[in-house]
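Technical note accompanying the year-one report. For the benefit of new consortium partners, we illustrate the data format agreed upon in the data management plan: each record pairs a sequence with a structure-token string. No post-processing was applied to the example shown here.
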Amino acid sequence: MKTPVDAPAEHRAERTDPEHVTGPKRTGGARKKARGTGRLAAVLLALASAVLGLLVWVVLANSGIEGFPGPVVVARRAGELIADGTLFEDAGASLKRVLIGYVLGVVLAVPVGFVMGWYPVVRRLIEPWLQFFRMVPPLAIIPLAIVLMGIDETPKIFVIFLASFLSSVVSTFQGVVAVDVTLVNAARVLGARDPQVFLGVVVPASTPFILVGMRIGLGASWATVVAAELIAAQGGLGFRMQQAQLYYDLPTIFVQLIAIGAIGLAMDRLLLVAERRLTHWQERR
């Protein structure tokens, strides 16, 4: 019986070679270094984009456009609205409406989309109506909602719900339909029943579609709430913009626009983080 000493010299050299021992560690270190470099590059690009945007803003403000405010004027007005609490009150009112309508729309859209994608009969019954209402902008329903539901919070939340629901349900059922049939058949061949196939194959495969629909629905929700507040509201970012329009108060309008964009961007980034965690198995560019 050969001992490790009796092994051929080249094999002993292969096992004791420092490069052979430390190769995987150096590979892992290289990956971490590349990941860190990529994150630093992303941060630098984001900063460069912000600086470029400010420069464009300054150029437009100094280009002679009548009343167009510059960053300093808008920042001063933002400080005033923050100091008296107006900006936080308006942002809170709009955010509350968006969250209620958006969450209700997504919670209902996901199961409806799954049922439509899984059962062709249900899909044929519901999809024509779904596409019909999807062609009608939620903004066009605001006057009808106000007439039927009054001018309180109900019509505003309803149109936000409709905007998020239509975006999310289409993406969800499209994700179910797009699941590779080979995966479904393979699971059934291995003895999986329909509930197991649905939970183990269909749900994970359609998750990226669901999250994309949620991100689109979030943008539609913010666009809808601002329009609803422009028509009938006693508070909110859209309401404040309408009041500023009456007095030609462009700095206030800019502050509200920036607040809407900042809050919406933060919510979108949260959804993006959730998407990366839930779909870490998916190959990315």
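Partners are asked to follow this layout when depositing records. The first helix runs from residue 9 to 16.
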